[in-house]
Amino acid sequence: MTFVQLIDCKTSRFDEVNRLMDTWVERTKGKRTATHSLIGKDRSDSSHIIEIVEFPSYEEAMRNSNLPETDEVFREMVALCEEMPTFTDLDVVRDEQLYAANAGRLFEAIATKGELPPLNDLIAENYHDHDPANDQDNIGLDAIRREMGMWRGAFDFTFTLEDQIAQGDRVCTRWTWNGTHKGDFLGIPSTGRTVSMTGTTIFRCREDGKIVEGWWQYDRLGLMAQLGVLDQLEI
Q1: Which of 50, 93, 116, 172 has the fewest other C-beta atoms within 10 Å?
Q2: pLDDT at 62 over 70
């Protein structure tokens, strides 16, 4: 679970504190586990400074805190403050930016060349997939991996993400899919045709960012027409 630490301090020597943060980044290069940080200054009290530091997890934050370089910088920071800084430790329980990023990573992973990645860092074990083209929903990570394997075996393809909107625990992505038909697809032997379709997917994410449910809508009829299936029906 993503972890955030708030460092609250009072100082009239902000420029020196700011430079010290640059020093910390330089000293911990290659060791630092923080993924993002920012510093805010209180509009009503310019001596009131809050630094927000994000980590992949609490454990990674503790690894960072135990670095000797972090301890050195903290002691220097205390010397620049008018009182002892305070720390607030937060487990992130909602992060719409993370959800959108993971949805984008999943589309990229599905289309990756070579062996399909495990996806267990993106999809929950109890994932529930809704696809109106399937007689039954796919439930579980293994089931959706098999579904993806079917598509990957039939086409070489890429996704282009056209729009993405995150709200609450949902991420809606409008995409364009382009592929080359290379293998059997629902009984249709390889045609070698270049095909494309558009679609929209809504993913629901849990607190740690993993995707737990998905709803797909896409132009499957248009795809079948491009593969020549509708021409055969007319005959």
Answers
A1: 93
A2: yes
- The answer to whether 3-91 and 96-234 have equal CATH topology is no
Spans of all domains in the chain: 3-91, 96-234
What topology is assigned to 3-91 in CATH?
Answer: Alpha-Beta Plaits (3.30.70)
In whole numbers, what is the pLDDT of the chain averaged over residues?
Answer: 92
What is the fold, at CATH topology level, of the domain defined by 96-234?
Answer: Nuclear Transport Factor 2; Chain: A, (3.10.450)
pLDDT value, residue 235: 46
If one compares 56 and 232, the residue with the highest pLDDT of the two is 56
Query: Quick count: other Cβ atoms within 10 Å of Cβ 40?
Result: 11
pLDDT at position 96 is 84
Token pair of 123 as six digits: 């999809």
